[in-house]
Every structure is written in C-alpha cells, then in structure tokens.
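tokens incoming
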C-alpha cells in the first residue's frame, strides 16, 4: 500500500508546483472554469493522501464515529444500537458506505469520506460565489480556502470530523440560495432539495442547525418578495416539504423501531445539557480563544482580512454594489453570526468547530473583494508563503515535511488487549469498553454492545446520569457482549481514576460483570472480562 515517510520531498515539491498552477488558474479567466475546479480538487486530494493512508487515530471522535459505523453495519437501527451523543446519525451512516463497497471501516476510509465532503463543499462554495459575485471574484477568493484545507496539517482540519458532512450540506444550501432571484421564477426541485439539505443538517450535527435556519429564512425572504406579486404557493410548498422530509423520516423511523424516546432523551435533551456551556456574553472571548489555538486558521483569516473588512463595512453602511440589493449581504452577515454562535455555544475549545467558519469567512470576503480585486493575487500568495515557509523551516531544522509518517502505519494497530481479543473473537460478537477509548472497537473491528461507546456520561455527575446508566445495563442484557473492557486508567480519555470511575464505581454494573464474566487478565492497564460461556 502507498505510504509516506516524514520527508517526501519530491511529492511535496509536486504539490507546490500544482498549487502554483491552481493559483495561476484562479487569476486567469481565460482558462475554463472546469479546468480551475478540476485542478483544485486534484490539489486537495493530492495533498491529503498522506493523512488518508495514515491508518491511526488522530482524534477520539474518529474512533467514536467509526465504531458506531461498525455497529450500524451489524445493527442499523440508530438510537438502539448507537448513540452518537452530540453527533447525529448521518455522520455515522456515511462511514458505513465504504463497507457496502467492500472496503474496511477504518481511519483511512473515514478520512476519505471526509475528503469527499470537503471537496464537495468547496465546489458548492465556488458555485455560490459565482452566482452572487461573478466567476472572476469566485475564482480569486475561493482559492484561499482551497489552499488552507489542502495544505494544513493541523489535526482538527484533516481528521474525519462531525462537522464535515454538515458543512457539505450547508454549502449545498448556500448554493441553492444563491440561485434564487426575486425577479425570476425559482424551480420547485431546487427549493425542495434546499429544504431537504437544510432539514438534514441537524441530523448530522445539531450544533449546525442555526446556520441552516439562516439559509432557509433567506430563501423564504426571496420567496416572500415574489409571493407578494405572483402568489407562488408551489415554491413555498416545495421548500417546506423538503425541510420536513428528513425530520419526518426520522420520526417514522424512531417510532417504528421504538426508539423515539431515545431520540428525545439522548439526542435532544442530551445535547441541551452539552450545549449549556456558554452564555451570550461569553461568546466573543470564547471565539477568540478557539481561534488562538489554530495558527493555520489565523493565517487563513489574516489572508482574508482586507476583503472581509470591506465586506463588513459595506453591510454596516448599507452600501450595495451594483443591483444586488440587501438580501445577499444580510444573508452573509447573519450566516456569519450564526456560525460564531454555533462554534462557541457548547463552551468547549475544540478547534474542529472552526470548520463551520470557512464558508461564512469566504462569502464575506467575496462580498468585499471587488474593491481590491486588483490585489487578489496577494491573498493566496499569503497562504502559499505561510505553508511554504513553514515546510521549508521544518525541513531545514528537522528534515520533516509530512506530519503523518505512514510507513508501517497503513494497517490498523493492535493494542495488547485487542491482540488478546482477536484470539477469541467470533463473527457477530459485541464488545463493551467502560471508560473512553473507542479505538479498541476499531482495532478489533467489533460492534459496540452499548449504544454509547464511551461511558463518560454514565460516570460523571449530571442530571441525566441515572438515565444513561439504566440504558447501559439494558443494552448489556440485549447484546450480551462477548468482551467487556475496563479501560479506565492511563489509556482512557478524561476518565482515569480507577478507584472512583472504574466498573466498581457503578455497583449494579459491577455485580452484573462479576456474575456473568470472568477476568481474563490485565493488558497494558486495561482489564479484559470474557463472558463465562466463552472462556
């Protein structure tokens, strides 16, 4: 299998040559738009290959979602077999697709699916920019986020994250909104699919719902202008029908399989608890704090500072270039504000939340670019100079270009406890990990025996802890997992105190394990219990 060491100089050189061509294409309108877009996608895929073939966990969320996908392949009823906590079902179902085509569910396949989302989102973003500001500005500004997502090696932007599919859906919505014009008749299919994508966003990530709401309200604003003159009930009905399609599907789905209460308790109410971290007054400082954690995103923002500032001043001054009207700038403004709210509301300092900012940043910069279009080459040049200089410095100091050395790392790792499990596992087995280390599921390629594959919400004190604990025991009785791992300790995220957080800290669970399982040993600080009939 293809692999990359820590200094693939020829490969990196080709990447920068390709980047140079794409930057040239972005400034040269004589080249066909398809050539620019194709070259941009090739650049993105080419520079992401090293992280795709690096088959190791980069972020705990990756293992969490991949283990959900492994489980859904075996039992596809979400909220019965799987609870993604803050992550919606669509993000997890997406990871099942490679398995349906004969590929494994692992870190490489997950990042490939994420890459498809990033590439698709960039194409839809370009299309929205083109519809609103013209092809020339679309090229000159879309190159900046392309270079960012192609060359960044910051983990939060290259691992498969729960933001990537929602961002793709939001980019599609922005494109559909950009096609609307109060002076022309909108197409019912376009409005239906706009509503469909917007209605799907909360089932990818509930956190992204405010952004989808802004785009839907923007579409309704355009339709209202036409409705006053043409009474176009068909267009309004198409948008509403599209918006209801996915929610109604999941309503019927959950009622049919008896998991509607789980949807309410563990997705809606569970997310409400999770999202109670920040107040409105905390938003500015929280947002600046998250941005301060990502140097690459700071450079991306800096490269767009001038056109973004001009765009913002135009909105504040109610200046409207050409015949655009107020609809587009105010859509962009509220989209940006909704993005900042979504990024900060949980109160967590997770850099991957900044994925939601890429589209609003670029749209605002596109709105202001016409005033400085003659200087447009400077903006992608800043990105190339930053990444090129950073790579050159690390090559001179450390002989390192690639942060993801995949030599010997293209196959899944086997932790000591997983190596022992693989000696005993059978097809169709379930496994449970008490604590937080979902990589064991991925390494063992076993489905999770409890809907929540990390037990943090059954360990820490919060208003719904007993509800989570009750479901945990119910799931164990339903799946009867062959293996139970007590991972609380050095290999567990957040929960590492064996005395107060291990299996013994939950008496009912401890009693169930002792009566039905036998301790097979401790492997690298992880206790392995095997069901009595499998000893």
């Amino acid at each position: 299998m293809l692999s990359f060491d820590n200094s693939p100089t020829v490969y990196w050189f080709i990447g920068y040559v390709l980047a140079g061509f794409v930057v040239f294409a972005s400034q040269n309108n004589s080249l066909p738009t398809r050539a620019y877009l194709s070259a941009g996608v090739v650049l993105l895929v080419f520079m992401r290959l090293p992280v795709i073939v690096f088959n190791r966990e980069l972020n705990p969320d990756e293992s969490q979602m991949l283990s959900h996908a492994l489980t859904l392949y075996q039992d596809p009823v979400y909220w019965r077999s799987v609870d993604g906590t803050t992550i919606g079902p669509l993000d997890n179902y997406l990871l099942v697709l490679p398995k349906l085509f004969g590929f494994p569910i692992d870190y490489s396949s997950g990042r490939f699916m994420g890459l498809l989302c990033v590439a698709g989102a960039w194409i839809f973003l370009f299309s929205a920019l083109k519809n609103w500001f013209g092809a020339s500005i679309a090229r000159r500004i879309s190159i900046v986020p392309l270079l960012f997502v192609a060359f960044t090696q910051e983990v939060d932007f290259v691992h498969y994250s729960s933001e990537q599919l929602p961002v793709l859906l939001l980019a599609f919505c922005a494109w559909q909104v950009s096609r609307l014009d109060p002076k022309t008749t909108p197409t019912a299919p376009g409005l239906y699919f706009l509503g469909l994508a917007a209605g799907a966003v909360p089932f990818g990530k509930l956190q992204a719902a405010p952004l989808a709401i802004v785009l839907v309200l923007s579409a309704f604003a355009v339709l209202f202008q036409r409705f006053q003159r043409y009474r176009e009930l068909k267009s309004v009905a198409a948008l509403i029908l599209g918006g209801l399609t996915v929610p109604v599907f999941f309503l019927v789905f959950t009622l049919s399989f008896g998991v509607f209460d789980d949807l309410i308790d563990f997705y809606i109410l569970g997310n409400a608890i999770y999202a109670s971290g920040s107040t409105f007054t905390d938003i500015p400082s929280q947002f600046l704090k998250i941005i301060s954690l990502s140097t690459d995103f700071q450079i991306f923002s800096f490269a767009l500072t001038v056109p973004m500032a001009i765009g913002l001043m135009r909105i504040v001054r109610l200046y409207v270039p050409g015949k655009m009207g107020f609809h587009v700038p105010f859509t962009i403004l509220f989209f940006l504000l909704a993005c900042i709210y979504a990024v900060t509301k949980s109160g967590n300092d997770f850099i991957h939340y900044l994925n939601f900012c890429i589209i609003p940043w670029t749209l605002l910069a596109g709105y202001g670019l016409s005033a400085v279009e003659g200087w447009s080459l400077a903006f992608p040049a800043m990105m190339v100079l930053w990444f090129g200089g950073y790579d050159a410095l690390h090559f001179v100091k450390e002989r390192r270009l690639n942060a993801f050395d995949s030599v010997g790392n293209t196959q899944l790792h086997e932790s000591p406890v997983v190596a022992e499990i693989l000696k005993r596992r059978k097809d169709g087995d379930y496994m449970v990990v008490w604590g937080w280390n979902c990589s064991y599921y991925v390494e063992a390629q076993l489905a999770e025996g409890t809907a929540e594959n990390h037990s943090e919400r059954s360990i820490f004190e919060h208003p719904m802890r007993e509800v989570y604990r009750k479901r945990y025991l119910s799931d164990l009785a339903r799946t009867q997992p062959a293996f139970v791992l007590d991972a609380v300790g050095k290999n567990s995220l957040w929960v590492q105190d064996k005395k107060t957080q291990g299996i013994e800290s939950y008496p009912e669970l401890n009693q169930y394990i002792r009566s039905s399982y036998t301790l097979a040993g401790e492997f690298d600080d992880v206790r392995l219990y095997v069901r009595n009939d499998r000893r």
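note: The beta strands are 430-434, 447-448, 483-486, 517-523, 526-531.
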